[in-house]
Amino acid sequence: MGWLLIVLVAVPLAGAAVLALPAFRARGIAVTFGTTVSGVALALALAAVAAFAVPYGQGGSSSPSSPNSPGGPSGSDGGGLGGDMRLQTDLPWIPGLDLRFHLGVDGISLPLVVLTTLLTFLCFVHLTRHPPVGGRPRALVVTLLVLEVGMVGTFLALDLLLFFVFFEVVLVPMYFVIALWGGTRRRAAAVKFILYTLLGSAVLLIGLLVVWTQAGTLDMVVLAERHGGGMSRSAQILAFLAIGAGLAVKTPMWPLHTWLPDAHTEAPTVGSVLLAGVLLKMGSYGFARIAIPVLPEGAAAFAPWLGALAVIGVIYGSLACLAQWDLKRMIAYSSVGHMGFVLLGFATLTPVGMNAALFANVAHGLITGLLFFLAGAVKERYGTADLARLGGGMLRRLPHMGSLLTFACVASLGLPGLAGFWGEMLALLGAFQPAAVLPRPLFLAFMAVGGAGAVLTAAYFLRMLSRVTHGVHGVEPGGAVDVTSRELAAWVPLVVLIVLLGLWPKALLAVTTPAVQAVFTSGTVAP
Amino acid sequence: MNSALNSALNSALNSALNSALSSSSGSALGTGAAPVIQSIDYAAIAAPLILAIAAGLVLLLDAFLPRRPGMGRALGLVALGGVLAALVVVAVQAAASSRLPGGARRTFCVPSSLGGAGDAVSCSFVADRFALLFAGLVLAAGTVIVLLSMTELSGGRIPVGEWHFLLLATLTGAVLLPASRDLIMLVVSLELVSLPVFALIGLRRYDGRASEAALKLFLVSVVSTAITLFGVSLLYGSTGSVHLGRLARAYEAGHAAGTTSAVTIVAVVLVVAGFAFKIAAVPFHTWAGDVYQGSPVPVAALLSVVSKAAGFAGLILVLTTALPSLAGVWTPVVAVVAALTMTAGNVLAVRQRHAVRLLAWSSVAQSGYILTPLAAVASIRAETSGAGMNITGASEIGASVDAAGGDKIGGAVAASVAYLVFYAAMNLTAFAVVMVVSRRHGRNEIDDYRGLVHRSPAAGLALAFALVCLAGLPPGLAGLFAKIVVFREVVGAGLGWLAVVMAVNTVIGLYYYIAWTARLFTPEAVGESRTGSVPGTYETGEGAGSTVSTVSTVPAVVAFGVAVLVSVVFSVAPQVVLSAVG
């Protein structure tokens, strides 16, 4: 089954390559083609889920790394879902750099792979009726498909440099999505985005190379099983600082978030959805996959700082949202707050906290994706996303749209019963009982501040709803069309998943828990 | 014609010096009983020999063949044939080198009986892996440049025969230089690389900018040669030897005794400074902008790839073969110069509006990246002797290129060379597209590239790919891997500050590369004038792709096809380069 993941990466790439051929230039089938390709990718991701659900040892999945893990708990005792790497392929690519084409999924990456392919597919569904404002749909489709290659590859890569390569692949396509199809100040936003994130990537690369020179291998599975063995404490701290800083730019962590509001605001709808829904997750995924498992001592040293910056981000994001007058900008700042909860979860260095972070990751992808879709739709109808000019009364004029917006906001502010709740709740719970090496009083303070941040989140979303959906005044929407069927097709899957994960969080937690346990429990095993 | 003769003289001088050298070292050391009989291994020097013969042939054909319309093209093809033949020879030598004793052919040797006690046979010309790699790089680049020249020369205002003669003379020097293993031959071949370039720039006599550029480069280069020679004479004076291997042994002994004289340090700094001129490293970088802009595009490509490769080959040879024991002296210098060079180049490039000028400063910055791993040599030496870190053996560094032999190139040097190879492919791609576009837009401003992807998709996409490669981002994986190779050496050597400087520089570099790339994709502004081409170049008409089909640009299109192909191969399979250098 190892070929499945290669195909998953290859399908969007091949799609982009085929579509880039001049033969497709004149025909207007680009978006349909893109939808098909991303649909195939989604189907492959779901096939990976199915293959994943087969208990270990029966699905024909091979695990070349298991010889390296004598007595490791990730070997056979997990038995259940996702404690080990599945569907691995391991091919040499560049022996000179020790770089192997090593892919695999486990409980940490699988949900994100599905999220990525789902959001990409929904973006294409959205595009079928909403051609890009900047024209040139074919170029946009090619760009988005290349973007998907980078995003999926990042979550699948099990080689540090391969991870880095895929991590970088997304930069140029996203730059062009913002710079060519963005809003009025798109050029500056795109430049800011790419320079900022590239600086993060360069620092990340230095950190990865420190790991490499110290540990002598690039294999993430081996490195994770060693739990930092073979690396001195000082090297781990240095590497964690570099890798953490690089990932924190992407996540983003306060105070490295300043590229985010501009990029999200100026990007076209599909760009914003993928930025918030997937690209930010690449940063937090890096924490779960590399920074914490590979560098446990470095993580322990920096966890209080990470936690502090995370809760500052929560409060800062919420306060900034209260001050925003632009709908998209407000949602962008809300991402800073939500990713603060994700980082707080990681900072606790406990299975509960990391589970919370991974859950909040997926929930934020679904909810914020939906929010950006809605914001794009609002902007399209009203011609503006300015809260003051939108006025109120959306629930009366566009009842379906208004209800969906209300639903998404309520989900985002963490109403129990919807997906947004569990991530925040578990992150705070994790902070209540952080890892033994961490100072508990400090994390109790973080918990308290984070809780206040959650209240503030509710405040700004309710403020926004009261301005937009309620009331009677406001401009007439230009084309007063309520939600179209195509929009509904793009949004309903997100709505369903938000409700599903809210009511049945175990569906996701059952997948992530074994993998998270593997990260922490075997820390006691001597390397 | 004057300058052409100048160059001919120079190459004559080269061979004269070589024979003078062998006899003088014989008499100076005074054993004198048996006459030294030189047997020249013509197979070893086949590549530079072919180039020199082709150069002479071109000049003769130009003088004696009747002037006909197609003659320029015929001369170009002769030059191209010469370069390709030399390339084939180098490839065959590289394939056969593993079966040779010591892994390399060597000639112009001084027997051990003529040296001090314990000196082995020292050869002035060694075609080992390092030399063949550089020769291959230079000749591949030469092929592209000859093709670009054929387009450039189709304007008909530049004397074709002289042009190709000078070009081949430069390539001869650039092939000789990495195989040189004594100081005199190094300096002479370095001059053989430099001198014809002044003339090449100056051949565009009708262009004031070209004359200015030629003069500027001439003055800078002469000064740098003088400085190098001064340093070389001090090295010779303090050791009594010009062969790199013997220098290394002399200094190793001095190093072991714990004495490093002030003269030696001055000599090292002077030699480094001299080569720093050639590679346009800070603080000797100021000539780059004007000279590149004033030169015809193929010559700018020559300067940025061939001339630079030659400079680096010389620098690497002197530092790691002759002076490895003084690494403690020169690595801090190299580290600081590398950091300054990449920063200055990038910062200057940010503000440029002229395509070639931008590439000029960016190639200064790239020089900084290439220099960076050399700064890691000393730290690795220190750590291998101390902590026993197993990244790069110190023994590999010095032993790489001398008689003791080896077919291996040390880790840090390998990183430099690998970066250089990647850089050459990427930069030549960029220059090839610039060449094609400059046929239509004489001004060659960055703004002229607006919407290129829509006008001629092949050229536009190729340039976009090259720029993204230079920036070091996917899909330009060649550039990314090149940077990773360099970063690895620097991080492995524990030079954290240099890694951070380089990281910041990568971001600055990205700014102007991506700004240019974005321009390729943005639609043309309304009312943009398509005119403005320099008189004498062909106006190739409106419309997408029509340039590509024009006869005069065919060689340039072939050139950029080759360059793009190589860049793509390097991106998909960087192992090709990494296994060749390592």
TrEMBL record, chain A:
Pfam families listed in its UniProt record: Proton_antipo_M
Residue stretches spanning the membrane: 6-24, 31-54, 108-127, 139-157, 163-181, 193-213, 233-249, 270-292, 298-319, 331-350, 356-378, 398-422, 442-462, 488-504
InterPro entries (alphabetical): NADH_Q_OxRdtase_chainM/4, NADH_UbQ_OxRdtase, ND/Mrp_TM
GO cellular component: endomembrane system; membrane
All copies of domain NADH:quinone oxidoreductase/Mrp antiporter transmembrane, residue ranges: 157-433
Subcellular location: Endomembrane system; Membrane
GO biological process: ATP synthesis coupled electron transport; electron transport coupled proton transport
Membrane topology term: Multi-pass membrane protein
Molecular function per GO: NADH dehydrogenase (ubiquinone) activity; NADH dehydrogenase activity; ubiquinone binding
Record keywords: Membrane, Transmembrane, Transmembrane helix
NCBIfam families attached to this UniProt entry: NDH_I_M
Family recorded in the similarity comment: Belongs to the complex I subunit 4 family.
PANTHER family reported for this sequence: NADH-UBIQUINONE OXIDOREDUCTASE CHAIN 4
Protein's recorded name: NADH-quinone oxidoreductase subunit M
The organism of origin for this protein: Sphaerimonospora thailandensis
TrEMBL record, chain B:
Native source species: Sphaerimonospora thailandensis
Top-rank taxon: Bacteria
EC number(s) on file: 7.1.1.-
Membrane-crossing residue ranges in chain numbering: 42-65, 77-96, 130-148, 160-177, 183-203, 215-236, 256-277, 297-323, 329-349, 417-438, 458-482, 494-514, 556-581
Signal sequence, start to end: none
Alphabetically ordered keywords of this record: Cell membrane, Membrane, NAD, Quinone, Translocase, Transmembrane, Transmembrane helix, Transport
Cell location: Cell membrane; Endomembrane system; Membrane
Domain NADH:quinone oxidoreductase/Mrp antiporter transmembrane: from-to ranges: 180-378, 412-509
Main enzyme class: translocase
Region of interest (Disordered), residue spans: 528-547
Quaternary state and interactors: NDH-1 is composed of 14 different subunits. Subunits NuoA, H, J, K, L, M, N constitute the membrane sector of the complex.
Protein's job: NDH-1 shuttles electrons from NADH, via FMN and iron-sulfur (Fe-S) centers, to quinones in the respiratory chain. The immediate electron acceptor for the enzyme in this species is believed to be a menaquinone. Couples the redox reaction to proton translocation (for every two electrons transferred, four hydrogen ions are translocated across the cytoplasmic membrane), and thus conserves the redox energy in a proton gradient.
A cellular component term, taken from the record's GO annotations: plasma membrane
Annotated catalysed reactions: a quinone + NADH + 5 H(+)(in) = a quinol + NAD(+) + 4 H(+)(out)
MF (Gene Ontology): NADH dehydrogenase (quinone) (non-electrogenic) activity; NADH dehydrogenase (ubiquinone) activity; quinone binding
Recorded topology in the membrane: Multi-pass membrane protein
Protein name, entry field: NADH-quinone oxidoreductase subunit N
